[in-house]
Amino acid sequence: MTRFTELPDLALRTHGGAVVAASDESFAEKESLIRPGRPGFRAGTFGPKGQVYDGWETRRRRAPGHDWALVRLGVPGVIRGVVVDTAWFTGNYPPHARVEAACVEGHPSPEELLAADWAEIVPRSELKGDAEHLFPVAGGERRTHVRLSIFPDGGVARLRVHGEPRPDLTPYDGLGLDLAALASGGLVTACSDGFYSAPHNVIAPGLARHQAEGWETARRRDGGNDWLVIRLAGRGVLRLAEIDTTNLIFNAPAAVTLTGFDGEPGAAAPVELLPRTRLQPDTPHRFRLGAAAGVPVTHVRVDIHPDGGLARVRLHGHLTP
């Protein structure tokens, strides 16, 4: 069974997430909650608001109530787990937190969100200082926003909202799109190796800034090759593949193969989309797919030969009716 932390972080800033409002951010800005990477800290680093923290920190409450932050998911989806990280907050962390979720379509204002129908996905739970708190989430409802409440005040370094993407694709009716993209609803469902970096990075939005923002495997010594499987946003016909090795200079694969399946790999017949094709280091490659690409598929296996890394994989096509 997949651990929920292996699923993409739907709230991540680099996936399009945003902290749209907060009750207070007197000591440290709310936007830090969804930054990529581990929180940093330098002791004795003071600004006009006190010690500088890589997180969200509210003032000390002198009245009843509690603090909260509203987060728009970069990719709407089904939430499978939440991580509340109080890294570096020791004498100023909140003793309890709660997480709620809602599905509000369109482009709602903070006021409209506050009036939305919220469902509790993580009940009020005890927190410790300088610690990651993992909370599995049950249910299969599609969500677009989450609300983090802390009781009564204090600091949280990061909020991670892991799950399966379920975006609204109706604006793309009749149009082509990247069916592998996380933002479209694609998901990496299997992978031979993710030693250096997570495989779902290859379908993340934007360009990889460095090697860690792509997918990179360990060096193989057994004569085999590495691979991953992408479940597409929906059943579709693929026409163009982009295989990007940007930033992978001495560790790019020598070649790539793309195989499609109309169903789960192993249960459906393979369709050759791209035969074994040479790759260059640090290069975005674009390949028109052959006549076999006219066959609808739901999954694509990406084989790299023999090992190495990819920055991004884009699979452009059209959804079937």
Automatic annotation (TrEMBL):
| Recorded catalytic activity of this chain's protein | allantoate + H2O = (S)-ureidoglycolate + urea
Q: Which domain of life is it from?
A: Bacteria
InterPro entries in the record, alphabetically? Allantoicase, Allantoicase_dom, Galactose-bd-like_sf
Pathway membership, UniProt? Nitrogen metabolism; (S)-allantoin degradation; (S)-ureidoglycolate from allantoate (aminidohydrolase route): step 1/1
Q: What is its EC number?
A: 3.5.3.4
Q: Name one GO molecular function term.
A: allantoicase activity
Per UniProt, the keywords (alphabetical) are: Hydrolase, Purine metabolism
Q: Does the keyword Hydrolase apply?
A: yes
Start and end residues of each Allantoicase domain = 16-165, 185-319
Q: Which family does it belong to?
A: Belongs to the allantoicase family.
Q: Which named protein is this?
A: Probable allantoicase
UniProt source species = Actinomadura luzonensis
